[in-house]
Specification:
With about 80 residues, the protein is of the alpha+beta class. The protein has one domain. About 25% of the residues lie in helices and about 40% in strands. A hairpin with a 3-residue loop joins strand 1 and strand 2. The termini are far apart.
């Protein structure tokens, strides 16, 4: 089973933020169906949503959550 990350972005006049979900699916098509369903659940009148699906490599392990600084700068705060 493959792992995917589903990112959904909502907006009306300004951004309503992102929501991130992890999905374990057999195929990319199944992950896209799941993303479409999650975006449909989030949509409201006058509020649009867009989504994207990214496949995660099987050997990738996330050991900890990123800090706000790491998220903003895009650099990992690891000791040298």
């Amino acid at each position: 089973m493959k792992r995917f990350v589903i990112v959904i972005h909502g907006w009306h006049v300004h951004s309503n933020g992102f929501s991130v979900h992890q999905a374990d699916c057999e195929t990319l098509d199944h992950a896209e169906q799941k993303a479409s369903h999650l975006a449909y659940q989030r949509e409201k009148p006058f509020d649009a949503c867009a989504w994207t699906v990214v496949e995660i490599e099987p050997e990738t392990r996330i050991t900890r959550k990123l800090t706000w600084r790491e998220r903003f700068t895009g650099r990992l705060n690891t000791p040298q």
